[in-house]
Inverse folding.
């Protein structure tokens, strides 16, 4: 079995040299960041309304647009927004299936191709895994806290504590389920079998796979940078939009701000693609190395 140092080096080599992996990584990272930015734009608006002593409504932004632009344009924007949200919910699962499968092919010295087939074939089980760990997402956690603060009435403190506990537990379980997605893609296991095997491998080889500590550091850095950029992108958009209202009409100002925000998201997705591919490559290569070993519960 490869050493942890060799696994990390191999994972980074795969991340930086396989063009198909880069394309799928960028594809998934872009839509994932776009969804997070949308969620936080709403939270920034709600915070702004709260600081002004106003109760921000869930559809205030949509109502403002409805009153500011022609109906046909509003209908077009609303339809595009809904379609984009649906795409953003599903694309990361498609991308992960392709990334894991192509990484496994590269590690197995096979031709690195067939990403679209891998994405489609593994889409539903990986989507199910993502949905199970939905509450481990930082953006979902922030959104939940925001909803509680606005509508929690006298139960705010208790509900925030409950949501925080659920978020922590979900992240702990997600950590022990890190081999679930490679199990689904590499060995074609069902979700429950892959999850059980992931926990067994994590518990059994924890002393042997010390690289996990390094991986956790990488993930922590990614989470910190991801949070920083996701917060800065909507802030930059709102700041530019408000600043331009002194020169142009509001609809023109916010349109320019939206275009700039989209460009910033593209730049952020380019860098996050490498980090996401690297994380998936480490887990995938480690999984392929561990399944070569004799299972710890087998005797004789």
């Amino acid at each position: 079995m490869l050493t942890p140092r060799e696994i990390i080096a191999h994972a980074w080599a795969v991340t930086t040299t396989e063009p198909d992996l880069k394309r799928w990584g960028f594809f998934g990272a872009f839509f994932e960041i776009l969804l997070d930015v949308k969620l936080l734009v709403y939270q920034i608006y709600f915070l702004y309304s709260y600081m002004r002593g106003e109760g921000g409504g869930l559809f205030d932004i949509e109502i403002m647009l409805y009153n500011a632009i022609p109906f046909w344009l509003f209908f077009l924007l609303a339809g595009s927004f809904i379609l984009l949200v649906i795409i953003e919910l599903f694309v990361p699962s498609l991308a992960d299936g392709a990334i894991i499968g192509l990484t496994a092919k590269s590690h197995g010295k096979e031709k690195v191709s067939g990403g679209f087939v891998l994405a489609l074939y593994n889409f539903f089980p990986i989507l199910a895994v993502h949905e199970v760990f939905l509450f481990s997402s930082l953006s979902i956690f922030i959104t939940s806290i925001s909803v509680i603060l606005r509508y929690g009435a006298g139960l705010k403190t208790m509900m925030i504590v409950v949501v925080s506990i659920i978020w922590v537990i979900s992240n702990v379980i997600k950590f022990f389920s890190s081999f679930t997605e490679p199990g689904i893609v590499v060995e074609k296991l069902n979700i429950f079998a892959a999850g059980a095997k992931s926990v067994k491998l994590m518990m059994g080889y924890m002393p042997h796979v010390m690289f996990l500590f390094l991986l956790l550091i990488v993930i922590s850095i990614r989470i910190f940078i991801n949070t920083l950029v996701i917060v800065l992108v909507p802030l930059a958009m709102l700041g530019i939009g408000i600043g331009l209202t002194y020169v142009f009409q509001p609809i023109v100002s916010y349109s320019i701000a939206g275009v700039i925000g989209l460009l910033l998201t593209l730049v952020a997705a380019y860098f996050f693609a490498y980090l996401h591919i690297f994380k998936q490559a480490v887990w995938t290569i480690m999984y392929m190395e561990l399944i070569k070993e004799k299972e710890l519960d087998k005797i004789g």
User: Anything to note?
Assistant: The mean pLDDT is 80. The two ends are 21 Å apart (CA to CA).
